[in-house]
Design goal:
- Keywords: Signal.
- It comes from Dyella lutea.
- This is Aspartyl protease.
- The protein is mainly beta and 281 residues long.
- The chain folds into 2 domains: 109 residues, Cathepsin D, subunit A, domain 1 (Beta Barrel), CATH 2.40.70.10; 116 residues, Beta Barrel (Cathepsin D, subunit A, domain 1), CATH 2.40.70.10.
- Helices cover 14% and strands 46% of the residues.
- The chain contains 5 helices and 23 strands.
- The strands form 3 sheets. Strands 13, 14, 15, 16, 17, 18, 19, 20 and 21 form a 9-stranded mixed β-sheet that branches.
- The longest helix has 19 residues.
- It is globular and about 55 Å long.
């Protein structure tokens, strides 16, 4: 190949690479959030009526609303119902409803089907009116920035979001039974963790470290000095030791982790990245 052609090809590749690297991010949809009772919470409206909703990426529903809240909103019950078991083992049967005109910051849904949060346990036991779940949020690249008081949502097609927002292209994230899961390496062997903004604490199943840590089943808390999530160091990481029935995971990364980090989640692309929030932020 003549040297002039090689040089031209190199320059073209350089220009294309520079153009891609310099492509500005699209403006994200911003959802204001604040921690209330350990959960990222936003003020929203449904059909023009105000509601207080927490953001729960560990919940497969689009929207969940308490029975008493549904009574004051313009919703229509479809006649269908659904039963499920939550992460704490509570079994619920809820009615399915159809509603319109959800607005939470810049996040909107013209028409959607939601689930009743029945009873007074599980998600229905929280003081908020309900939740926005993974069923709505999975269509975006999500950036949880609790220190800045917002959730930023980008199109799945946007390039460079993780590098700009979390300083990394990200590591593996996969969906299992409708929840986001990543591999963790610790000084006591590998773990499977679930990403869950609807968990008010970081929790670890005692059986996950039984036999690896002396008297693990007698402890209330445990701290991993080494804790590498999806290939990215995050230790030390403290957990509450608690049994929970959610299958196929050893631990849940909830409020504690999200409060200390800016977290980027891309379920469509199978990636997760994070960075520590600025000191004092």
């Amino acid at each position: 190949m003549p040297s002039t052609i090689r040089k031209a090809g190199f320059m073209l590749a350089f220009v294309l690479g520079a153009a891609q690297a310099g492509t500005p991010l699209p403006d994200p949809m911003r959802v204001p959030i604040r921690l209330e009772h350990g959960l990222p919470t936003t003020q929203a409206t449904i059909g023009g009526k105000p509601v207080t909703l927490f953001i729960d990426v560990g919940n497969y529903q689009v929207v969940g609303l308490k029975t008493a809240v549904l009574a004051r909103l313009p919703v229509t019950f479809t006649g269908d119902s659904e039963s499920w078991r939550d992460a704490d083992g509570h079994v619920f049967t809820s009615r399915i409803f159809r509603a319109a005109d959800l607005e939470a910051g810049a996040l909107t849904a013209t028409q959607f089907d939601g689930n009743e949060l029945a009873g007074d346990a599980g998600k229905a036991g929280y003081p908020q009116d309900g939740l926005i779940g993974f069923g709505l949020l999975h269509r975006y690249q999500m950036v949880f920035d609790e220190s800045a008081g917002e959730l930023r949502l980008y199109p799945v097609s946007a390039k460079g979001v993780f590098e700009a927002e979390c300083g990394s292209a990200g590591g593996p994230l996969r969906l299992e039974n409708g929840v986001m899961v990543s591999e963790v390496r610790t000084g006591h062997g590998p773990l499977q963790v679930q990403w869950d903004t609807g968990a008010a604490a970081d929790v670890l199943r005692p059986s996950a470290i039984a036999g690896r840590v002396k008297d693990a089943d007698l402890l209330r808390r445990y701290t991993f000095d080494r804790f590498d999530v999806a290939g990215q160091p995050a230790g030390p990481q403290e957990f509450m030791l608690r049994q929970f029935p959610a299958p196929d995971v050893d631990a849940v990364l909830g409020t504690g982790f999200f409060a200390r980090h800016v977290v980027c989640l891309d379920p469509a692309g199978g990636r997760v990245a994070f960075r520590q929030k600025k000191t004092g932020a």
